[in-house]
Design brief:
Distance between the termini: 40 Å
Number of strands: 4
Radius of gyration: 16 Å
Strand content: 25-35%
Order of helices and strands: HEEEHE
Largest sheet: 4 strands, mixed
Number of helices: 2
Helix content: 10-25%
Shape: extended
Length: 91
């Protein structure tokens, strides 16, 4: 999975204001490029995915996105947040 994330990170700083958005759910995955508030490029894929890495790999096999600053959104099915009490620590 690290290999896929490394593909999302641009090697050089770009002057473009474009950003890549990736959305991963158990039932599909999608990426899009937003530039100046307008959707310029997109790709979607439907399927059943047990792991986010599987969805990301399948999506990128379909079409490789451009190397831009990236925001990834995972479905709540792929993570779990727990509310816990704060630990006792000395002042």
């Amino acid at each position: 999975m690290v290999k896929w994330f490394n593909n999302l990170i641009p090697k050089k700083k770009t002057q473009s204001k474009a950003v890549l958005g990736v959305n991963i759910t158990p039932h599909g995955a999608a990426w899009c490029v937003l530039e100046s508030g307008a959707l310029t490029t997109q790709s979607t894929l439907e399927g059943n995915f047990k792991q986010p890495a599987d969805a990301l790999a399948a999506l990128f096999q379909q079409q490789t996105p451009p190397a831009l600053p990236c925001h990834i959104s995972l479905s709540h099915h792929f993570y779990q947040m727990l509310l816990v009490d704060s630990p006792n620590v000395p002042d």
